[in-house]
Design goal:
- The protein is an alpha+beta fold and 193 residues long.
- The protein has 6 helices and 5 strands; from the N terminus they run ααααααβββββ.
- Helix 3 runs antiparallel to helix 4.
- It is globular, with a radius of gyration of 23 Å.
């Protein structure tokens, strides 16, 4: 009788564990399916940057460039453009946000995208430097990081490559924010004219 009770308890425990595993596995599948059905813009705009902010300067630049890629490649509504620019501004340092308020930044994006399309340009590929290539420095008491991105641009049947350096500063919450960015000459450390 005692042995039967132990077997029953063990079976109930095994069934409980299997049931819990099944429930977790089904939830995981549903989340994966839900995320897979989101457009790239929805994946960007639904990311909660307050809870899931990119941890490194490189990750910040990679996420920002997903936004940039969406500006130039995707079709979007005005509301989606608002959400994209909101996400971009969350990656900017306070100084950059003050210099580029939302309406001004959004107008700049719209004008730039129109200019690219009018010239028949498309961004074929965006690459961000390896983690080993991120340069760190201290300026006064600010922690600064330099991250380089490259852009492979198609215009008609020809291609060109441009580079942009991003300067990020760590804020009071320990988050890397984009302080400024500028186009540079190919394979150079100097700004292009």
């Amino acid at each position: 009788m005692k042995k039967t009770g132990i077997v029953i308890i063990a079976l109930v425990a095994i069934i409980g564990i299997c049931g819990a595993f099944y429930a977790v596995n089904e939830n995981s599948k549903k989340e994966s399916q839900k995320e897979a059905s989101l457009t790239e813009i929805q994946k960007i705009t639904t990311k909660d940057l307050d809870k899931d902010y990119p941890q490194t300067p490189r990750e910040v630049v990679k996420f920002y460039n997903k936004i940039v890629d969406s500006y130039y490649k995707d079709q979007y509504t005005d509301d989606e453009l608002d959400s994209l620019t909101d996400q971009a501004l969350k990656l900017f340092d306070d100084e950059l946000v003050q210099a580029n308020p939302k309406d001004s930044y959004k107008s700049s994006v719209v004008a730039d995208v129109k200019n690219y399309k009018d010239q028949g340009k498309t961004i074929a590929q965006i690459d961000v430097c390896d983690s080993n290539d991120v340069k760190y420095a201290t300026d006064s008491e600010d922690q600064i990081a330099y991250v380089r991105a490259s852009y492979f641009i198609k215009q008609g049947s020809s291609y060109s490559k441009t580079y942009q350096d991003y300067v990020l500063r760590k804020d009071s919450e320990g988050r890397w924010k984009i302080l400024t960015f500028y186009k540079i000459a190919s394979d150079s450390d100097t700004e292009s004219k």
